[in-house]
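Task: sequence design from structure.
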């Protein structure tokens, strides 16, 4: 799919506004969301970009179920994810040390909110209908490298949204990838 810089800027603004509203309602505090970067890149380039931040990453993904074949992937440094979980649950940052089931659900819901917000904006701008399925978490230990290899071996494009969520004065950085590739969607579906 082809997207102009103008469309990506509009999608970024509209998506960030929707994400801000959703997280502010969810966490009962003001959450400011901005997109510091929005660009279309090749899948091989993403394979190089999905690198552990701060030692380890938390990765969540969901598949596109309508409009085009592909997937949406969220990566966040582990320490950033732990702080984010504490902040949206109104706990002191540093409280969470291990992601429990409820925390993983919050990360999956983060991907759900980001994906739906940006895909809705993209659908509105392009007149298409893009929908995602249920989000999943990927265990980072062995799968991060598998994702990198899968991205380098498949063809297609992706939109990268570098998203900054500001909660209670803390800046949480996440990378959100919307990948347009049936091959990649099939590969990550088998990584569960």
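Answer:
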């Amino acid at each position: 799919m082809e997207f102009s810089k103008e469309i990506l800027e509009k999608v970024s603004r509209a998506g960030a506004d929707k994400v801000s509203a959703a997280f502010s309602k969810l966490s009962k505090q003001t959450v400011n969301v901005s997109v510091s970067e929005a660009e279309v890149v090749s899948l091989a380039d993403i394979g190089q970009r999905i690198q552990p931040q701060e030692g380890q990453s938390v990765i969540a993904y969901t598949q596109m179920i309508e409009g085009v074949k592909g997937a949406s992937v969220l990566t966040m440094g582990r320490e950033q994810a732990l702080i984010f979980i504490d902040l949206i649950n109104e706990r002191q940052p540093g409280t969470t040390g291990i992601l429990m089931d409820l925390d993983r659900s919050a990360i999956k819901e983060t991907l759900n909110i980001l994906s739906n917000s940006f895909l809705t904006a993209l659908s509105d701008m392009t007149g298409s209908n893009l929908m995602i399925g249920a989000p999943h978490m990927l265990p980072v230990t062995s799968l991060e490298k598998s994702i990198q290899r899968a991205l380098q071996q498949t063809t297609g494009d992706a939109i990268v949204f570098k998203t900054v969520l500001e909660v209670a004065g803390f800046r949480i950085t996440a990378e959100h990838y919307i990948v347009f590739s049936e091959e990649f969607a099939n590969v990550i579906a088998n990584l569960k």
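Helices lie at 5-27, 43-49, 78-88, 101-126, 140-153, 182-189.
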